[in-house]
Amino acid sequence: MCAQISQSDGESIFADLDDEGSEREEEISPRKRQLRLYRRALGEQWRVLSQDNLVVASVITLLFFITMAITAPFVAPYGQTERLTADDGTIAQWEQPFWYGGEGGYVLGTTAEGYDLFSQLLYGSRAALLVGLLAAVFVAGIGTMVGLVSGYYGGRVDDALMRLVDFMYGLPLLPTVILLVALAGPSLVNLILAIIVLQWRTTARVIRSQALSLRERPFVKAAKVAGASDRHIILKHLAPNVLPLTFLYGAFSIAWAILTEAGVAFLGLGDPNHVSWGTMLQSARSYNALTHEAWWWFLPPGICIALVVISGFLIGRGYEEITNPELQE
């Protein structure tokens, strides 16, 4: 994907703030001024994103699932691995939802092991979103910093970091994650670390290409002449200008991380201590839920995965219009 930030040559997107050389501006501390720049950038990005109804709907969808994950312990009628029993004392296996003719009063029925599917669906959102959001934050953060450092310094630093990126590109995502999780042990922490190790590469390469262009802009050269440190230039002048790209690949990382978690869990390498949508699908496959026509077991988690993944990609598509204005109508 090739994305470029729309800017006039030689001008920072925050150059207008630099021209406000009033006494009031001078009273603002550098830290507060930098935060103000970031807030202004985020506000401008949201103004563009909010014009796309699909992006707004995607944000609402993600907020809904985040709320579901936070409130799961309070909303779920049963524990995620609480085995239920029928009135006669037997395990409540293969119970249908109450609205589909079931007699147990369960919202989504029960599994072959007697677990409440509605409770597992609620708790499953916690594992899926934990993996997706944490992976996205670290993937976007690490990739952005590596890209900025590589593009700004160039030379041997750039060569060394880009050769590392080339090596990472030689490792396929899902098979390598499966191998790393199998070696380190199935857990959410190991899964998140495996995804982070492999996913930052794309963000780093794209950010680096943008940093190569930004470092030649007059506002960066002026900062160097004024005696600004490399750290100051990277964080204040380069980083705000690549924020749209950072959020673009962060949104995509949410989708890829959740898909990866579902795939790994479906293969039986999910965290045994936490229920996720992927482990629900794996259990449904193990007990042949499709053969028993228990569609309420595998369809809800599949729909949840699809909604979150599609939302992530649509938000990323919205950021593409920010980084590449030619896509805007």
Q: What name goes with the CATH superfamily?
A: MetI-like
The span between the termini is 19 Å
CATH architecture: Orthogonal Bundle
Radius of gyration: 24 Å
Helix share of residues? Answer: 55-70%
Task: Give the low-pLDDT segments.
Answer: 1-11, 13-26
- The number of strands is 0
Whole-number tally of structural domains = 1
Beta-strand percentage range: under 5%
Total number of helices: 13
Secondary structure: elements and pairs:
Blueprint: H1 15-18, H2 23-26, H3 30-49, H4 53-75, H5 117-153, H6 155-169, H7 173-184, H8 188-214, H9 218-225, H10 230-238, H11 243-269, H12 277-286, H13 295-323
Identify the notable features of this structure and list them briefly:
13 helices, 329 residues, mainly alpha, MetI-like fold
